[in-house]
Write a structure and sequence with these properties.
Blueprint lengths: L3 H30 L4 H12 L3 H22 L2
Helix pairs in contact: 1-3
Length: about 80
Amino acid sequence: MTHPSTAIRTLRRTLTNRRTARKTRQSLERELASYNTPSARLDLDTILARHDSAETAEIKAILHRQSMERIIRTGN
């Protein structure tokens, strides 16, 4: 059986790690949203093409979601 103080420390550490990961992802999402012109997006696509799909999967997923949200919001 785990000691209650150990469980609390583990929970705090887990929550801190999740909060940090969420802030990091939000920062990445904001940065990627700034690539909002065709030429900026082409530059980003060129950069992403230099890396394998495993490395770029998260970025591509964010870009896809942002693109879908933009289409829904603007109808384009």
